[in-house]
Fold these 4 entries.
Entry 1:
Amino acid sequence: MKRPPKLQQKRLLEMLVLAVLLSCSCIALFGFYTHRAFLTSTSPLAPRSTAFYQIQNDHLHHYNRQNLSLNAPQPAATLFPKPPPPPPQTNAVGSVLETGPYHNWELFAADFQEMMQHLKIFVYPDIFNKSSPFANIFLPRENPLDNPKLGNYFSEHMFKGADHFYVCCHSVGREAPSKHHGLRNNAIQLTCCSSYFQRFYLSHKDVGLPQVWPRTDQTALNPPHARHRLVYFAGRVQNSQVRQQLINLWGNDTEFDIFNGSPTFPYEEGFKRSKFCLHVKGYEVNTARVSDAIHYGCIPVIISNYYDLPFSNVLDWSKFSVVINQRDIASLKTKLLSIKREVYLRMYHDLCKVRRHFFWHTTPRGYDSFYMTAYQLWLRRGTLRLSY
């Protein structure tokens, strides 16, 4: 029997309302390895050790960091006020020069502030038994359908690792996730060795992590006129042809402090008294010496091919560092001496501006290494590479 038109309209309206309700109730989970983390549309209870994030209706990952109690979320933490843009630099005739070491400070500051305003982190404890209310998310269980495309975790069903990140600075951290193809191909790797020749490093997806030693404070820098040595480097050869060539060519130069191994004076002193500090590939390429040079106000000289520098999508490294191809080591001194003093002074002042981005605090502060690394994850929030 054919239904009356009014009944058909009523049934269609009910189906439309149901479809809207279902679409509004969808939850996207964003899992982060080391501390398993997920995106959620509501604010659940909050024990500690796993982070939860909130996706807004516009499908962007807006979040704001929170400290949560064991029972319920606390009010959002106080946000950093929006920083004013740096004043434009002018020359003697009043013409505006380039505005420092950032590709686009205004764009970066606005996007960074959006991240600070909308990031929400809900922290949970590690799950060890099935009595936890979150056991269905974190504990593995048998695949009921015996489908190889499904995993043993709910988040693995959804994104095959594309919603995770993990941190590693050495080979052990890279080898373990490399055994899981979905994790290796999809998860974001935060690594201290961001070379294109490094195994398992994917430049379009992974993040170069600044390798920064814990320091109590930002010590005062030696001014440029107090830096009497041209170049400083101290490190083992480590089967590195580049380092061996560097020592053979410049080890006895009177303007260079080049040491195969430890220097004859305190290691930090070389950074403080030199204008340029070399970053030369050894067994691997990492950022320890770059961060040390920036901390002590020494212009980094990067001698390494195909290397992703930390925060390179925000910082214009050409404004406060020198990048030299490995095959040009023989002309190293000529290149450095060709840098005019006014250019060196501008590089030094730009280096002082970016110094705060390479410092870790026990309680993170705006624009330090913690938040700058979080910003790299923010920029990659829409990168999903599903393996099926």
Note: The CA atoms of residues 51 and 207 lie 20 Å apart.
Entry 2:
Amino acid sequence: MIAYSVVFVVFLAFVTGGIILGSKAASAWKEKKQAEELVKQQEEAEEQEVEEIVIDTPEPAVEENEEDYFEELVENSIADMPLEDKIAGLFIVTPEAITGVTTATQAGDGTQEALNKYPVGGLIYFGQNILNEEQIKDMLSTTKSMSNYRIFLAVDEEGGSVSRVANSSVEVTKVDSMAAIGEGGDPAEAQEGGATIGAYLSNLGFNLDFAPVADVVPEGGSSVLDDRSFGSDPVAAGEMVSNFVTGLEGTGVSSCLKHFPGLGEATEDTHETRAEITKTLDEMRASDFVPFQAGIEAGADFVMVSHVAVPEVDTNGLPSSLSEKVITDILRNELGFEGVIITDALNMKAITDYYPTEEAAVMAIEAGADMLLMPDDYNKAYEALLAAVQDGTISEERINDSLRRIYRVKCEEERRGL
């Protein structure tokens, strides 16, 4: 009996200890699971935070990549160009200047040979080149396909009297002169005019319009500009210019503000002779520059520099198109224009009566111009500019700078597709 009792006590102690031990083990296991669950929750929270950070970062990275891609596109466009082609790319000339024909109305073998030999940056067309809609469409599309490089196909289409297309036999919606639009006082009409012109130019195949006129004329008008200016109030004219640019550029056609630093008060026509303005720089800042600044801020791709001399601005009396003071110091630096600066036509007498073709071409580039419009003799101007780079007078990097500005405009179509 005593032995049985001892055995029972031992058994009871064993069982009780086992229960206690089992309870502790269970408690420890539970605590372990809770700890593991807590760690898991913390890890998941950290992963979620990382995912949220990753989600927030791609957008600026994509923007940066788009900009990088565009700049790479621009750089690649000029990287493999031989120097000769780079120089040719700074010129916009008539098709007759490189083909030798009297009047170009179609693009055939002669055009192909000319573009292979003279890969110019652009061609400008006048009324004589435009016969009908089918003809001009075919000529422009064929010319574009023949060029080894992207090419500007340009025209003067301002509305009113200076409208090479609207005043031809091509049926398009005619736009009033800038003077008439300015007198109307409604900037929306200027935007509609720019959009209308851009729509039909784009449809025909043009991608550059030498418009709008941003000159401020004196009260009573200008004998030189006639009805081509928006008016004499610089602020009101600036609104018109800005809206015209918005309408035109919105169609994919590049606009060009002209004729910097302002032809409004010139009494002589630079087509025929030397012209001069006697205003001071401060007077021009308060008036003439206002519409140009408005157009620049609206996104104009080009500014055309006239041949007018402004002795109070450039004491050397140089035509503005050859003046570093006007082109670089004022237009590029003071007004902050980062687009393409092109000269007015270099075959005008304000240039040809005073400067050899070769000298004018080199001077314009040295002054800061990016493109040269219609030199009196393309071959002489081209050879002179090429020689100036080859002998170190002008650096090749200076040429590259202009080409970058040119190709940022030319590549914009691809940019919009990015």
Note: Residues 2-56 form the longest helix (55 residues).
Entry 3:
Amino acid sequence: MVGLSLPPLLRVLRPHQWSKNVFVLAALVFALGDRTSSLPPAAMARSIAAFFAFSLVASSIYLVNDILDVAGDRAHPIKRKRPIAAGEVAIGVAWVLSFVCLAAGLVLAFLLAGGRAVVQVLLAYTVLNLVYSSWLKHVVLVDAFCIAAGFQLRLMAGGYAAGVGISHWAVLCTLFLALFLALSKRRAELVLMGESGLEHRSSLKNYNVPFLDQMIAVLAACTIVAYTMYTVDPSNAEKFGEGHGLLWTIPFVVFGLGRYMVLTQSGDGGDNPTRIFLGGDAWFLANTLAWVAVVLLAMAN
């Protein structure tokens, strides 16, 4: 029966995209090294539950997006292989699966991930993405800001689940980074699809490569500045101790952004950021692991 084979049903949930939800865990990770306050005993369990709740809701949205975009995806050289576009998962089955994922995510958030506050963030994320999928994804620049807002909501959910506050500089850094990734993906789509890309995403007609290159460069600079301001924020000296060493993580951020720009402009994976982050490029992966190691050492100092 169409739509009931197990591999397509798993692939249609896009579990590889769940890696984006590590932003939900950011508040917990940086709070672990905070010497000025102690985490609630259940903070780790709630944060992990929030990660999976967000992942389930995100899968629900991916399903809706694939249903609404089925015609455009069939015209895309890569996205036409998605289970719904390829006819491996029936649209009716996809609707049911989307509802199940949404309900499961909200119930998990309410029972295990921090209750009402996390549920409210998930509902805001759902509404944002439904409006995005049906309308705003076709509006130039607004589409990128919607994606960035989704990452802000991930940070908020993680903060509520862990019971800790989020640095303003961390919020700004996430905003700029998300915009950088979103516009890098648009650039890759524009180069890959050319004129035929208008069938897939009408907002592409208002983008051009020179404009996107300028915006990407500006956003990379903004990300570096915001991250630098976060690392030198006086509050971090109180949290992680004097000479905590977060400053030494800046070169890894600069290299990571530069490497990502090289990959995007060479046409090697810019249309699929998740593939790059999950090891599609050995240099990028090694740099990311080194950044994580230095961050952990800095907080443990």
Note: Residues 50 and 113 are 5 Å apart (CA to CA).
Entry 4:
Amino acid sequence: MYARSQFLNRIGQTSEIPQAFEISKASSCFLIDQKGNTYVDMISGFSVSNIGHQHPKVIEAIKNQADLYLHSTVYGEHIQSPQIKLAELLTSCLPPTLNQVYFLTTGSETIDAAIKLCRKATGRFEIVVCRKAYHGSTLAAESLRSDHDHNQAFRPLIPGIRFIDANKISDLEFINSKTAGVITEVVQAEAGVVHLEDSYLKELRFKCNKTGSLLIFDEIQTGLGRTGSLFAFQKTSVCPDILLSGKALGGGMPLAALITSKQLLVHFMRQPALSYISTFGGHPVSCAAGYASLKVLFEEKILEEVELRKELMIKILHAPAIIEVRCAGLLMAIDFKNESLVWTLINRLYHKNILVESFLFCPGALRIAPPLNIPIPILEKTCQTILETIIELNT
């Protein structure tokens, strides 16, 4: 009780209803509390723990780097091998135009950096963004949120933001000679796993090329294997000018990246120099963890088995209460006929030691996003329990 009391009194809260159970240990797809209760993590810390918790190779990499050095100076001044190794591996998996990495600390920071970069590179002002997208919580990222009821309290927001509807080709007319950049997700996560159609993305790419606007893909939540490919855009026929990554990039450590061409990133170097500075961006321990995590993703062939797990989940999760199941790999939204069922279900499953969540902009859907390598017997048993609980609540 003491730890809970101190947590509520000394730690700044994000809501009035935190789960507030104390973690003592984590392993694979499990979280263990102070009382020894084991929970199945079916949200991966919001798509951070893509290869599970405490992977031995990631922990080994963290320990090895910590023995050598931690922070040396602000990002971009000293040569640090963990940054180089991770940047080399990342860019080797991407189209040749995405050949340089600017390491940062968190996803929201990459959004801020992308806005600064595209405004400086183009000399333009306006940023176009899709409605029902979530890009973070800094003031710049909050300005990209179309939920005005939420961001009303933080106004004035940054100016020059124009909203369009995803998959609505006629809205692309709002991209013009004033547009510095278009920031979009390939799969809108918080909208309840909404795919941007390939035909729409092609038209978007064409419009950006025609107007000289930069196309930025936010893959902070969908990257590093979550959708079954390394990045979701690699399942489409469209390549962005700028790619944003975070969450799972650090293998459980804080790390994010803006990936683009050297030709574009030169704008951060001059007129003025130090156009973007990040004290802890590309922290060597985080980069070591990220490199190890990415190697695990490939060496253990985790990407190849995402589809198998997705199909297993879809096969099990059928009930009269469910309207639709939408998936992007192992990012799943289960839409219910009764919107109020979602929070009751989350709470009931918590008491059955299963952690699931909701979506910001799709209140009638349940979020499921387990580690990509969750053992199949555990996944099957957990999905059966979720199904049984849905049926319980509707009888």
Note: The chain has two domains: 2-54+302-393, 56-299.
